[in-house]
């Protein structure tokens, strides 16, 4: 019996323009092992949604594995093996190093689709994963920033109250408005997420969430400048803040533009692998 495992860099984040035309890779042309990955354009642009992949290999293999990342450590892996009744099983695993990956109960949400099974000496698993296109650590940073914002707000309230200009200056008023508006943003994000899971596409609430955040971000930058003015900061510090704020704004706008260009390119080009390297290893039993 033989085992085979391959890992493709960020395999769960590969961008394709249509599920019907996936990216295919056969790491060893003579092994008969092939993998295909496809992400709907809507999921690629939103960063969440269904991801589809296929694993196929001769039934002489004991199991076949597809993993994300360039190494075993902390990799999400998907193992396919026969169940003894002419069908296949797909098992989500989490690897911690060069050891057998452990089964995860709260990891990837997988569903075997039609066409999966063992036929003519070939094992095939057609899989839909409803949460493989996400998994970023961004929410953790957002929560941390959100908590730090409220800590800063609390310090500002105490300082402003002690010096007698709390809610009497534009900076304190606008700062309070920004903090209150940011409370709304997570709820808009939740509604967007629910809408996307149901319709697999962005809606009005999605664009509201995006533009609401951009407007609040701009107000926050303006309020930072007002705060420096209120503190009677030196011209040097005001100029430095203005330069940093301007550069940050330009980079943000540039990132949005580049993302829209990539999205447009995916509509014109059927596939874009992005030069992702593939790592493979073999184990013989």
From TrEMBL:
GO terms for cellular component: membrane. Pfam families: CDH-cyt. Residues 265-285 are annotated as: Disordered. The chain crosses the membrane at residues 173-191, 211-231, 237-258. Keywords: Membrane, Signal, Transmembrane, Transmembrane helix. Residues 1-20 form the signal peptide. The keyword Transmembrane applies. Residues 29-151 form the Cellobiose dehydrogenase-like cytochrome domain. The keyword RNA-binding does not apply. PANTHER family: CYTOCHROME B561 DOMAIN-CONTAINING PROTEIN-RELATED, DEHYDROGENASE, PUTATIVE (AFU_ORTHOLOGUE AFUA_8G05805)-RELATED. This is Cellobiose dehydrogenase-like cytochrome domain-containing protein.
